Amino acid sequence: MVPPSPHKPRRRAKKAGNGNGNGGGASSSPSSEGHITKREPLVKAPVFPLASFLWPARGSVSEWEVLPLILMAVGLFRWAAGLWGYSGFQRPPMYGDYEAQRHWMEITTQIPVSQWYFHDLQWWGLDYPPLTAYHSWLCGKIGALIDPTWFKLYTSRGSEDQTLKIFMRATVIVSEYLIYIPAVVVFVRRYARQSNVPRWTAWMSLVAILLQPATLLIDHVHFQYNTVMLGFVLASMSSMLAGRYLWSAVFFVAALGFKQMALYYAFSVFSFLLGSCVFPLRPGRFVGIALATVASFALLLLPLVAGTLYDAHRGIDARPDYDGPPPALPLFPWLTDVLDTNAIYYPVVEQLVQMVHRVFPFARGLFEDKVANFWCALNVIIKLRTYPSELLQRGALVATLASIIPPNLLLFFRPRTSLLPLAFATTAWGFFLFSYQVHEKSVLLPLMPMTLLLAGKQGLSRDNRAWVGFANILGAWTMFPLLKRVDLCVPYAVLTLLWAYLLGLPPTSLSAYFQEDHSILRKWATFILHAGFYVAMAAWHVVENSVPPPFDKPDLWVVANVGLGAVGFGICYLWCLVQMIVQSDILPRGGKSKSKAKSQ
Questions:
Q1: Residue 32 confidence (pLDDT)
Q2: Average pLDDT in the 486-497 region?
Q3: Whole-Å CA distances, 501 to 88, 361, 412, 465, 504
Q4: In this record, what's one Pfam family (predicted)?
Q5: Is pLDDT above 90 for 93?
Q6: Structural domain boundaries of the chain?
Q7: The pLDDT value given to residue 23
Q8: Could you report the per-residue pLDDT of 1-19, keeping only the tens digit for each?
Q9: 144-195, pLDDT tens digit by residue?
Q10: Cβ-proximal residues to 110 (8 Å cutoff; 6+ apart), any chain
Q11: Distance between CA atoms of 77 and 466, rounded to whole angstroms?
């Protein structure tokens, strides 16, 4: 008789589904990246509609099964949004942002490089940094292969060719899929992995971020290329998460080179990178970051400088319509007297000074149009335009520094990657509320990092969804007057309400409030605060649509929009700052101290 074998077969572990632990649905399990997460209570049904749509993907073993479907779905929304009109459609004489972007493709492909920042400044003169000009040149060259008449100098102005519209919409989507969307995907993966967030939850946050209504409305309906700049910023943040600090500097220079609005994040980038060099002291890293930054700026300006020198060599004047000696340079008129205007380097100096002058238009005033920030709201009570421009600039500088120094000091002394979205959001809110020369569309900058919080720890919890959703819906609402002027009310309503519905937010649902793990006071305080704003926004829409403003106050409803929006954004700034203070562990906690988790 054969004795029984001592070997016992190993029992196979039961396969656990991917949960979220953030209010999205089922229990959590080891993530796809090999990180072990705490087991969450089993939830047998999704909590909000977005979780319902992604519910079948819980058991997916590979992200490549779900990610292509997500990217195709969000791409379909982008293309569908582009079927609507755009800024300036059938609105002569200046048309709008669509014509500005088309015109820059026209001038960058039709005139010499040295004339880009000087050409016909009264008709949408180029006023963005060089990388935007290079992007316009590339798009214009590709478009000219399809139809050269789209970018004919002078004669193509105000073109409303439908095929041109398709091409222009396609350039936004292609640019976004080349830069912004890969950056979002990489950031969400890294941030979720560091926060021990399961894969299914990361997918939900990815969809929520890519369907952010304000971004779709401005870039794919109104028409702009903000997501290119935001993509470079996200690439910089992702590099910080990965510890690739030199690449972080390179990507952020690219963001600055595309749109100067990236300066909203500059203090946070500087604070984190400097803090990572100081705590602990790493002089080699500091030198490397500095050299990478200088080299990136040099590479950014190289085509512009080389083109200017080449034009000067051929005898092409940057100002062909100007006769006589070279005029005084803007911003630095004394340079004309100090420098030799016949020297070989002078055209380069002239070009760079003009570029800076166009990129930073201090002469435009404290704010542009009606924007929901502190200064525009204050202007209702105190007419700020009656004060000297220099005084307003100094006041804006002091107020901006006062608002952005606290979060960046925290980030400098606590250079933790987990604090990056909050630091970027708080700093951008400070810039939006208090800085000089702010536009309505600048609200995209604080909304982007605040929306990234959905991908972090407890990112899709009810409290987090409530605050992130509140900021996004309020941001889209403050842009309604801008969108209404160009007949884009329907996409505003559809995209905003759809996003609110998917995340279970007001006005479609109240499921983001009254969670069990918070005190009764906190539940009701958050609900009453947000409900007051939601009711006010809904009432404003009713009144604005049905009651004409008084004859002597034609902007009454727009001013009301500005005032309510400024207060709401100020609350968002304070919420981000408080959350950052709490998560930085800078305040002493009562009881037995807990060991700090690794942040990087």
A1: 35
A2: 95
A3: 30, 40, 38, 12, 5
A4: Alg6_Alg8
A5: no
A6: 61-90+161-281+366-584
A7: 52
A8: 455 555 555 554 444 344 4
A9: 999 999 999 999 999 999 999 999 999 999 999 999 999 999 999 999 999 9
A10: 151, 152, 153
A11: 24
Higher pLDDT, 328 or 457: 457
Token pair recorded at residue 346: 């002078």
CA dist 231 → 215, 235, 454 (Å): 12, 6, 17
Q: Which residues neighbour 310 within 8 Å (Cβ) at sequence distance 6 or greater?
A: 113
Cα four-point dihedral sign 47, 48, 51, 56 = positive
Which whole number is the average pLDDT over 430-456? Answer: 94
3-state secondary structure of 299: helix
Name the residue type at position 11. Answer: R
CB 375 within 8 A of CB 366: yes
DSSP string for residues in 240-298: HHHT-HHHHHHHHHHHHHH-GGGGGGHHHHHHHHHHHHHTTT-HHHHHHHHHHHHHHHH
Q: Which of 510, 21, 492, 12 is nearest to 221 (CA)?
A: 492
Structure tokens at 194: 């560091």
- The residue among 366, 468, 414, 402 whose CA lies nearest residue 50 is 468
Residue tagged 């004919």 (tokens): 152
From the list 359, 176, 172, 356, the residue with the least C-alpha distance to 260 is 359
**pTM reported for the whole predicted model:** 0.90
The one-letter amino acid code at 354 reads Q
Start-to-end CA distance of the chain, whole Å, equals 61
**What is the separation of C-alpha 189 from the centre of its chain, rounded to a whole number of angstroms?**
18
Ordered DSSP codes for 81-144: HTTS--TTTT-TTT--HHHHHHHHHHHHHHS-GGGTTTTTTTTT---S-HHHHHHHHHHHHHHH
Query: What value does the CA radius of gyration of the chain take, rounded to a whole number of Å?
Result: 26
Tokens of 213: 């209504």
11: left (phi over 0), alpha (psi -120 to 50) or beta: beta
Gap between the Cα atoms of 247 and 252, Å rounded: 8
Phi, then psi, of 367 in degrees rounded to 5: -145, 160
Asked whether 43 and 51 are in contact (CB, 8 A), the reply is no
Can you tell me the distance from the alpha carbon of 505 to that of 384, in angstroms, rounded to the nearest whole number? 37
Q: Is 316 helix (H, G, I), strand (E, B) or coil?
A: coil
What's the rounded mean pLDDT across residues 15-42?
41
Does the structure show a pLDDT above 50 at 97? yes
Tokens 């972080």 belong to 248
Look at residue 424 and give its three-state secondary structure.
Answer: helix
Q: How is 2-30 classified by DSSP, letter by letter?
A: PPPPS--PPPPPPPPP---SSSSSS----
User: pLDDT for 334-351, tens place per residue?
Assistant: 888 888 888 999 999 999
**Cα angle value 88/378/448 (rounded, 5°):** 55
User: What is the rounded CA–CA span in Å between residue 498 and residue 505?
Assistant: 10
CA atoms within 13 A on the CB side of 259: 18
Counted residue by residue, the chain has a size of: 600
